[in-house]
From TrEMBL:
GO molecular function terms attached to this record: 4 iron, 4 sulfur cluster binding; metal ion binding
Protein name listed in UniProt: Fe-S cluster domain protein
Assigned keywords, A-Z: 4Fe-4S, Iron, Iron-sulfur, Metal-binding
PANTHER family: ACETYL-COA DECARBONYLASE_SYNTHASE COMPLEX SUBUNIT GAMMA, PTHR36214
Source organism superkingdom: Archaea
InterPro entries: 4Fe-4S_dom, ACDS_complex_subunit
Domain annotation 4Fe-4S: ranges: 3-63
Membrane-crossing segments per the record: none
């Protein structure tokens, strides 16, 4: 369901809203709220989506927005003094400094994993693996694109791709530690080398704010190490 055109995506969002037109979200009708969601409005502004009766709708909306790379941000009335929009993680509500996009012609940010499983020594470039990042509740599925000094650089392929059966023969390596992200700063202020930052990888299924330290920066391309899902 990824890469939907704007009209189709807005229609699908509207279908998942309660249709009560109650105005609690700040909009007179649900279809107007659906249009604003495309611009980054927080779906949690609808109080009914937070109720148990609409949990499936909430989860489906969250997945739909993630798959189509719609990142929740605060409205323009909350822009900072420099005029930059603030970005907020959907699952945790933390503010991020910027969004991290994949490198050119790549479909996800590069992640460097420390895999402690004994299976790690037998892994090869182009192998597909299943793993759970330390601190994350979701299983991930990925393709290994580089191996260097015991570290494995991967492209994330799911969980969505795995669930839909697009790939086969994933090797389950258990819990892995994400030690680095590499990608492009697409929205937000370009960070300086040595700075600790908060960022949202745009391919992250949970749209969760990550933290780390900028160790390389060239143009808008950055390498972030010391990755942590705890944000202080």
């Amino acid at each position: 369901m990824t890469n939907l055109d704007r009209e189709t995506l807005e229609s699908k969002i509207n279908e998942l809203l309660p249709k009560y037109n109650c105005g609690a979200c700040g909009f007179k009708r649900c279809d107007l709220f659906a249009e604003s969601i495309l611009c980054g409005e927080d779906i949690r502004k609808c109080p009914f989506l937070l109720k148990e009766d609409f949990k499936l709708n909430f989860d489906e909306l969250n997945n739909l927005l993630t798959e189509n790379k719609i990142i929740v941000c605060k409205s323009t009335k909350n822009i900072d003094k420099s005029g930059n929009a603030e970005f907020i993680g959907l699952i945790d509500g933390y503010n991020a400094d910027f969004l991290l996009d994949p490198l050119e012609n790549e479909h996800s940010c590069r992640e460097t994993l420390l895999i402690t499983s004994p299976l790690a020594k037998d892994l090869k470039i182009n192998d597909y693996i299943q793993y759970r990042p330390l601190g994350c509740p979701l299983p991930h599925f990925a393709k290994i694109i580089e191996i260097s000094h015991g570290m494995h650089v991967i492209h994330v392929e799911g969980p969505c791709h795995r669930i839909t059966g697009e790939k086969k023969d994933y090797i389950n390596v258990g819990v892995a530690i994400v030690v680095a992200f590499e990608g492009v700063v697409s929205k937000g202020k370009m960070p300086e080398i040595g700075k600790t930052v908060r960022f949202i990888p745009t391919h992250c299924m949970m749209q969760k704010v990550h933290s780390g330290v900028i160790v390389e920066a060239e143009g808008n391309r950055v390498l972030i190490e010391g990755i942590d899902l705890k944000v202080w």
